[in-house]
Amino acid sequence: MGWAARFLTAVSFLAAGILFAPDALVGGRPGRPAAGVAAARLAHLLCFATAWGAALWVTFIGGIVMFK
Question: Which chain regions cross the lipid bilayer (predicted)?
Fold first, then answer.
């Protein structure tokens, strides 16, 4: 996997994070949750995705490589 593919993946995940929690990076509007709340939501989403991806990697990919 080349550097361009990794960069594109990182930008795609950043765009998805902005799509689901735009206030965390863009800024809040009146009547919307505070920037701290939006940043916490974005951090929670990213931490959950990281934990889920690590568990998936260890369970399947690591298992296949280890027993090959």
Answer: 49-67
HSE of 65 in the Cβ direction (CA atoms, 13 Å)? Answer: 6
DSSP 8-state secondary structure symbol assigned to residue 29:
-
Return the SS3 of 34.
Answer: coil
- Nearest CA to 42 out of 28, 55, 58, 56 is that of 28
Centre a 10 Å sphere on the Cβ of residue 7 and count the other Cβ atoms it contains: 10
Are the beta carbons of 41 and 21 closer than 8 angstroms? yes
pLDDT digits (tens, 9 = 90+) for 6-34: 888 888 888 887 777 666 566 656 666 66
Interacting residues of 37 by C-beta distance below 8 A, sequence separation 6+:
23
